[in-house]
Amino acid sequence: MKNTFSLTKSTYKIHMQCQAINQYSIGQQVSESYVENNRKKEGIAIEEESKKYFNELIDSNHLHIEIQNYRNTILYQPEATIEFKGSDIRDIRITNRADYLFIDKDGNYHLIEVKGKTDPYKKNGKLKDDIKHDLTYQKYVFEKYNIPIKTVSLLYLNNDYTKKEKTIISELFIKDDVTHLLEYQSSEIEEEISRIISIIQKTSKPIKTISKGNCRDCPYKQTCHSEEGLTDEIFEIPDIRGKDINILTNNNITNLKDVGKYIKLNPNKESYIQVTRTNKPIINIDAIRNELKDFKKGDPIYSLDYETLQPPIPEWEGFRPYQQIPMQYHISKLEQNNITHKYYLHNKNSNPLPRLLENLKSDIGNEGLILVYFKRFEQQRNNEMGLMYPEYASFLESVNNRMFDLEEIFKISKGYYIHPDFKGRSTLKLVLPVFSTEQTYTDIEISGGMTARYKWHEMTADNINDTEKKKIYKDLLEYCRLDTEGLLIIYKSLMELI
């Protein structure tokens, strides 16, 4: 007697991303991170907002035969389940819950999927792969359930929408008919479903899609890479493509000294291999001295860091979906070998920019170079704030002109300062510990920008108690301070070096 396996849209999409993940995940409980949990909450909020796009809805958590009698009706969350049988695989139950199913006056069925994105298309105009797999799976399940889908549409957030005093739902969302972009073949989906089951039953091996993008946050990365003989040193090679990783693993290459025999090396790869193999940094003192030539000994030096919100649905007038909104800054100032601090952290659930800009103008002054890390981020925020608040535009432009991007010194492409502990990258979280063992992100409650923005929403919620609110406030200050103080520590070390 065959066992029954339940397959969902999520299972199918994961398989299309990398066939190995479902095999590893069977019987495994992977705890959801704080950030993942909050992203889900955002998705639910977007879905709730999308209901307002339609005049009238019928809630439906499953489909009945009576659906044939509906006309001019929008069904919310209709669910269909079909049985998929095969002689050489287990019987499986395939389920799908759609966001909306519209039945027109002639009895035709139209699938509508909500996406909390502003960019569902590739540059060539085709659907992004994850969205295409999502929609073709849904169309397949409904049609096997004897509900022929005439059109498939996406309802997604409009990046050009600017919130008015009241949210205008018809402008917040864009609805596109994407039926012609699906490249739908039911036989191909059935083949993939058969492959999923055979992989789970271990009657066939999965094709692993190993790449930086796929593997970086995968909970099964270590197990998967170990099976393939892929070492961390090989995986961290800068600019390495999935195709190159496959070449190296297929030839059992685990030592960096052999990499150049099988794949083409560019200067970035060569520098990484050199510092990793020798465990000695590359330091070009003359180049660093030239980069820092505008810094004069004894002059006051500032460092600046923003933390931002990025609400999918604009909360305040004048903002766009997913616009990055500074709600906090920290300024550290180095003068006569002493570091002092100034900061602003908005602690109310309201537009933070008026108060933030007022304080920033007072705290950062009109003179002195400003250290930042990844300059484009702070400059873009300043440009956006200048457009929204023209009275601060010239001030923000002057702040941009005073900025020096310290990350440039540590980019592997520059070759100025490359350390084995950087692992081929230049992120501040990897660079700072090389210059200060006391300045680390491992011992603080908030250690990432995504966590910071969600914690801010917690802090400003109505249902939080004073004790927890004060704790989050303190943690946010500590996280932002660590970045700016760290920049000055790195700067001092570089100045001593040259």
At CATH level 2, the architecture of the largest domain is 2-Layer Sandwich
Described by the principal axes of the CA atoms, the overall outline is: globular
Residue-averaged pLDDT, rounded? 92
Count the helices. How many? 18
Head-to-tail CA distance between termini = 75 Å
Could you tell me the CATH topology label of the largest domain: Nucleotidyltransferase, domain 5
Number of strands: 16
Strands side by side in the biggest sheet? 2-3-6-7-8-9
Biggest sheet character: 6 strands, mixed
Percent range of helical residues: 25-40%
Structural class based on helices, strands and sheet pairing? alpha/beta
- Parts with pLDDT < 50 across at least 5 consecutive residues: none
Percent of residues in β-strands: 15-25%
The CATH class of the largest domain is Alpha Beta
Classify the oligomer. single chain
Radius of gyration: 27 Å
User: How many domains comprise the coordinates?
Assistant: 3
